[in-house]
Amino acid sequence: MPPAEGGTPGYPGAPAQGFPPPGFPPAEAAPRKNKALGKVLGVLGAIMVIAVVVVIKVLISSLLGDATADAKTGDCVSIGKELGAEVSETTAEVVDCSSGEAGYTVVGRVEGTTDVMGTACDQYFKEGDDAVILAGDDYLLCVVAKP
Questions:
Q1: Is the pTM of this model over 0.85?
Q2: How many angstroms separate the CA atoms of 134 and 79, rounded?
Q3: Which of 36, 47, 93, 126 could tie 67 with a disulfide, CB 3.0–4.6 Å?
Q4: What's the CA gap between 110 and 77, in Å, rounded?
Q5: Which burial class, exposed, middle or buried, applies to 137 when counting CB atoms under 10 A from its CB (0-12, 13-18, 19+)?
C-alpha cells in the first residue's frame, strides 16, 4: 500500500519527517545570544563589586581614622589580640607607655611605603627582638614587644 499523501509508510496521515504537522506554523529560530555582550556585562559587574568594596573600606578608614598616623620612635602601641603570623590586618593605637595595654614600642618609622614583607624595618630590629611591622596609610611602623 502506498503511503498516504504527506504521510509515512505505516502511518497514514502522519506528517513527513522534518516538517511540522499541518496547521502549525514553523517554529521561529531562537534569537542568537550575544556572547560578547554577556562577557562585557560580567566584567562590568565584577568591576562594580570591587569598586563598592574599595569605597566601603575607604569610608570605614576615614571614619575610624588612622590611630597610629602620628606615632613616632619611642611611642608605645597597643595591638589587637588577633595579631599572629598569618594576620594581614589588625588594629593598633598609640597608648601611654605606662598603660597595661602598651605591649609594643615603636623603634622606627619608614615613610613612603606599606610593604611589610620588605626590608625597610630591618635596620631598626636587633637579633632576638619580638618584632612586628605595622603598615599605615603610607608608612611602616617598626615595633618590638616591650620587655
A1: no
A2: 9
A3: 93
A4: 16
A5: exposed
Coil, strand, or helix at residue 144?
Answer: strand
**Quick one: which H or E segment has residue 56?**
helix 35-64
Nearest C-alpha neighbor of 67 from the set 56, 79, 57: 79
Q: How many CA atoms lie within 13 A of 88 on its CB side?
A: 2
Please report, for residues 14, 57, 147, the alpha-carbon distance to residue 65 in angstroms, rounded to integers and kept in the order given.
80, 12, 29
Measured CA distances, 88 to 46, 85, 132, 139 (Å): 24, 8, 12, 16
The pLDDT tens digits for 9-65 are 555 655 556 666 666 666 666 666 677 787 888 788 778 777 776 666 655 555 556
Q: For residue 73, what pLDDT is reported? A: 92
Q: State the pLDDT confidence band at 8, using cuts at 50, 70 and 90.
A: low
d(CA 125, CA 138): 20
pLDDT at res. 112: 93
45 in helix, strand or coil? helix
105's enclosing H/E stretch is strand 104-111
